[in-house]
Design brief:
Urease, subunit C, domain 1, ten-stranded mixed β-sheet, 33% helix, alpha/beta, globular, eight-stranded mixed β-sheet, TIM Barrel, 2 domains
């Protein structure tokens, strides 16, 4: 396709719109993906012999092959023997702490060519993240769509060097995207400032008492923002965090503080004894999970960071401070949540090594299978539940008419083995196609300073 200059592209699109036809993302105005084994993300069974009509950025029609009328001039993609799924969603990434455009773009490229079409960015330097969001949305760079949070925490948290890196040039705690909150804060103004960054949500992070957690959440919801929180906010306990009715909470590990006690500050990082969770379902945790299920709070579990990443770091550096959770403890808490019927999304919160050709998300999906979830349940977690966590269910997470054309094509059945996601042939994001064969492996310099 010949790429037009900006002005020419706008003029061409305007001319098409005047003519009464939608301006397609790329290629012909319509594409029909035919003869697919369809896993639509809803959690329902796989359906053979299905067709999906895409017009521009969106799905127009989903039907059995025999019922699909191919529009005149539409491009037809034959998916006989192949599997069509919604694009995957990583519900916990960090793209800019500290900002490094080269590394962020490398991760985003690996994500999109690995089937990840959307991510939740869980608080960073939003000056950098906002530009990445715009560039990816405009297809100037290959990458997923990004939905991000502005962070709020207690004043003592802003001694953390990460906050200095993510607010460089601004007094830590005074940036609209990373605000220090105390009893004197005008909450309406604080949330309005955060909303002005175009954030999707407020992330309630650390060193806040229960009353301020509730006040932040109430005002965020009043102003139409989602609330994403850690499971423990120090000194606010998991039950106090859940009482504020967050839309999603991150890190199953932190639920253990309801049993072990919650330190006064995040900085204590006191490891928890895994014994109360390994013998079977913990009754104290069960009460938390009942609350989560009843109010629809999603668990962004992040199991692989404890079961894999943290333990690898500890093996390389015996002097490193122990993780809050062992991998076994984190797995036990995720397993109990899943069995209790809590909606679990698939977030990572770490970055796979540069020589891994697949997105970090694949490690999380494998971790969810390990705790007992079926591949179908894991795909549901990484699609529709991930869309809910990001507040984007009306637009993504399943293959249905009206939703964005965010899809992936596989050559092997992922319901038989979650590792068959690595048979990825094609990613489609907003109707644009990214062939796996075109992916250029990352270099060490891409992901390491």
């Amino acid at each position: 396709m010949i790429r037009l200059g900006f002005a020419a592209a706008i003029a061409a699109c305007f001319a098409v719109l005047v003519g009464g036809t939608a301006c397609a993302a790329d290629g012909p105005p319509a594409t029909v993906y035919r003869h697919a084994w369809l896993i639509d993300g809803s959690g329902g069974p796989m359906r053979p012999g299905m067709s999906v009509l895409v017009e521009g950025e969106r799905i127009k029609w989903v039907a059995p092959d025999a019922e699909m009328a191919v529009p005149t001039g539409a491009r037809v993609v034959d998916l006989t023997g192949k599997y069509l799924l919604p694009g995957l969603i990583d519900s916990h990434e960090h793209l800019a702490t500290p900002p490094n455009r080269r590394q962020a773009e490398a991760n985003m490229r690996r994500d999109i060519y690995g089937g990840v079409t959307a991510i939740r960015d869980m608080a960073d330097d939003l000056r950098a993240v906002a530009e990445l969001t715009r560039a990816s949305r405009a297809a100037e760079i290959p990458g997923p769509d990004i939905y991000y949070a502005a962070l709020m925490a207690g004043p003592s948290f802003f001694d953390d060097p990460r906050t200095h890196a993510a607010t460089f040039g601004v007094t830590p705690g005074k940036a609209p995207w990373m605000q220090s909150i105390d009893e004197t804060t005008d909450m309406r103004t604080a949330v309005t400032l955060a909303k002005g960054t175009s954030a999707t949500a407020i992330k309630i992070y650390a060193n806040l008492p229960a009353d301020l957690v509730s006040k932040i959440a109430a005002e965020a919801h009043r102003q139409g923002l989602l609330v994403w929180a850690h499971t423990a906010v120090y000194p606010a306990t998991p039950s106090q965090v859940l009482a504020a009715r967050p839309d999603a909470v991150s890190h199953a590990c932190g639920l253990g503080h309801e049993v072990a006690g919650t330190p006064q500050t995040y900085q204590s990082r006191t490891p928890m004894d895994p014994a109360p969770y390994l013998a079977g379902d913990n009754p104290t945790i069960a009460k938390l999970l009942q609350t989560m299920k009843a109010q629809g709070t999603i668990l962004d579990a992040t199991g692989s960071i404890y079961a894999e990443h943290s333990e690898q770091l500890a093996s390389k550096n015996p002097k490193a401070k122990p993780s809050l959770c062992s991998g076994a403890m984190s797995d036990a808490l995720i397993r109990q949540a899943w069995r209790a019927g809590v909606a679990v999304s698939s977030g990572t919160d770490w970055v796979a090594p540069w020589d891994d050709p697949w997105p970090t998300l694949y490690h999380e999906l494998a971790a969810l299978v390990r705790i007992g979830m079926s591949p179908g349940e894991v795909i549901h977690a990484a699609t529709l539940v991930g869309a809910r966590a990001a507040g984007q269910e009306p637009d993504m997470g399943s293959i249905a008419p009206g939703k964005l054309a965010d899809m992936i094509v596989l050559t092997r059945d992922p319901l038989a083995d979650i590792q068959n996601l690595k048979s990825l042939e094609l990613t489609i994001k907003r109707g644009r196609t990214y062939r796996r064969a075109d992916f250029k492996p990352l270099t060490k310099q891409d992901l390491e300073d």
